Each structure stands twice: as structure tokens, then as C-alpha cells.
Amino acid sequence: MPNSGNCSPVATASDAGRFGRYCLFLDVDGTLVEFAATPDAVRIDPSLASLIDRGSHALGGALAIVSGRTIADLDRLFAPRQWPAAGLHGLERRDARGLTTTTPSPGRSRLESARAMVEAFAGQHPGVLVEGKGASVAVHYRQAPDAESGLTRLLEQLVRDLGSEFELRPGACVLELRLRGPSKADAIRAFLAEPPFAGRIPVFAGDDLTDLDAFVAVERAGGLSISVGDRVRGRLRLASPRELRAFLADLLPEAPGTAERKA
User: What CATH number should be reported for the domain holding residue 229?
Assistant: First the structure.
């Protein structure tokens, strides 16, 4: 697999032959699929789900989805398919055996109180969307960009009021108030300690500030970071989710019995 380049990498037959040495970690929104007006509006094309299946087969199951969404939401999005996954930026993780672990969160009642204040703000700013995820509250302002500064001030004050158990994570037109705990990097390190990921070269594709720690983790493990879009920079840079899908489709060997439409 290439480990450097600009926006138009070219996969070769030898790359595909070596693919089994790797394990693959994939973010979803902004990475595998384009952003939509709201998270619920995202739809997964059957060809993308088939492509991920093809990757999982080629890697002997050493492929995981690593997302800010909950694992339940990922399963809804990709239904009926399920793969190893990390949700809520690492607060949830489902390993290759199907065992799911969730970080304990005694501060959830305080988080719910904070959510009520954020929803009051959203009620005064049409287009602001509040998404409760249990261990976090994501506030989307893609449809209300003028609300960003006021929203940022409110959430920063809430973090100060709530205390050190909580943190604020920025993303693409979203701010997420969450309980502190494992990150995407922690989730990837946990996968790398278990079969079928252990002993392989990790590759992670992401698009946002919340993916930077995962970039560092895979690079320190001798792997490859792939950035999608222009918000962050990895060792390999692709311009869009469409380019990432094409890159993976060109790189992956065909799986027996897999019929895929080109993305």
C-alpha cells in the first residue's frame, strides 16, 4: 500500500497482493460518505456496504468502523451488516468476537441537565440540531452557521461548570460535549492488541480534528494515516469520500462471490 502522495494515489497489483498484511480502520461521516444536512439524512449506498464487506473478507476480518456515531447508529446505517466498531469516538467498542464494551459514565445525569440548556439555545436558533448520544451531546450547526460563536461560548461555559469529567470536541459544523474517556486512538490500540488485527500494519482514514489522535496512533505503530478532505492532513491525502471509495475499490482484491457496483 502506498504510504505517501497527494490527492490521486494509484494502486497497483502488487499493492493488492500485499493487502493482507494490513488492518483497516474507517471513519464514516466525511470520510466514507459525504456529509448530509443532518446525521439522520445520511444514506449508505449498497455498493459501499459491499465494498466494506470486500475489505473485511480480504483482511480476514481485520477491518473496523471507528466513528463519532454510536455503534447502534452505525448498525442502523449499515443494516443488516455489522463489523467490529468503535462508537462515540472510542467510548464504545465492539471487538471481532462481537463483544461490546462501554465506558462507565456516572456523570450522565449532569450531561442531561446540560443538554436541556443546549436545547433551549437551539430553540432560539433555527437550524441548530441537538443530538443526544447517551455519553455525549452533539450540537450541529451546519444549517445555522451564524450560531457558531454563541454556541461555542455556551458549551465552553458548560464544560467549566460540569468539571473535569467532561470535554468539548469540535468537528465539521458540530461541537460535541462528552464525558472524558477512551479516544479513537485508544480504540485502535485496543483492536491492535487482539486478533485478527494484532501483528498487522494499521491504516486509518479520517477527515476531522477528532481523528488526529488516531492518525498519531497508527503512524507510531508503523502504519498509514489517510486524510479525506482539507480539514486535517494525513500521510496520504484524498480529496473526498468519493476518492477514498475509489482508492479502496482499486486496491482491494475481489472477494469470491462478491458482486459490486463501482462507487
Answer: 3.40.50.1000
Residue 14 burial by Cβ neighbours in a 10 Å radius (0-12, 13-18, 19+): exposed
Planar angle of CA 17, 196, 234, nearest 5 degrees: 65
Same domain for 96 and 25: yes
Q: Are strands 63-66 and 85-87 parallel, antiparallel or unpaired?
A: parallel
Closest Cα partner for 60 from 255, 260, 190?
255
Note if the pTM is more than 0.85: no
pLDDT tens-digit readout, 207-252: 999 899 999 999 999 999 999 999 899 999 999 999 999 999 988 8
Other CB atoms within a 10 A radius of the CB of residue 33 amount to 19
C-alpha cell at 157: 461555559
The residue-averaged pLDDT of 200-206 equals 97
Going by C-beta distance under 8 Å and a sequence separation of 6 or more, which residues neighbour residue 74?
28, 65, 67, 85, 87
Cell (9 digits) for 68: 463519532
The count of structural domains within the chain is: 2
**At CA 145, angle to CA 142 and CA 147, rounded to 5?**
115
Question: For residue 235, which amino acid is it?
Answer: R
Let me know if 27 is a catalytic residue.
Answer: yes
Q: Which of 27, 29, 73, 208 is catalytic?
A: 27
Residue 190's nearest CA partner among 94, 105, 104 is 94
* Same domain, residue pair 99 and 226: yes
